[in-house]
Amino acid sequence: MRKLLVTVLVAASVMAGSGVSHAGGPTIERIPINESGTDPQLTAYCGFDVTYTYKGSMMLRTFSDRASGLVELTNLNAVATVSANGKSFSGRDVGADIVRVAADGSVIIAVVGRIPFSFTGALKYDPETGEVFLEPHHDLSPEADTACAALAA
Hints:
The chain is an alpha+beta fold. The protein has three helices and eight strands. Strands 1, 2, 3, 4, 5, 6, 7 and 8 form an eight-stranded antiparallel β-sheet that branches.
């Protein structure tokens, strides 16, 4: 979920960016997060209907005066709660997503922090090619088994 959101925001900010001056400060946008619905991945994994709520906030800093270097920094602090059978399981989604543009125009995204059911650590990748330059070392995918067990009837 977070990786997709970052990729979309990057595309918009890179297209909007021009110039090379670093004199101006970033544009700062505070975005509340309040989403809910059916979680198709956990529903399929657990074998029963699972819903989710995702609440928190995001601070997006866009450096539109830069053609290269740091062009976007997003800080995220949210709680993901999944529910089924009258039970719930929660995890925090916290960290920073960093978008850098190289002098040749290539983009590198770094996702740093904790993403529920995914990882803690850092992931660096090229959003155009999907090439991964740095993989996180702490796998949180076993949380899915823990969540399913906690939510089971």
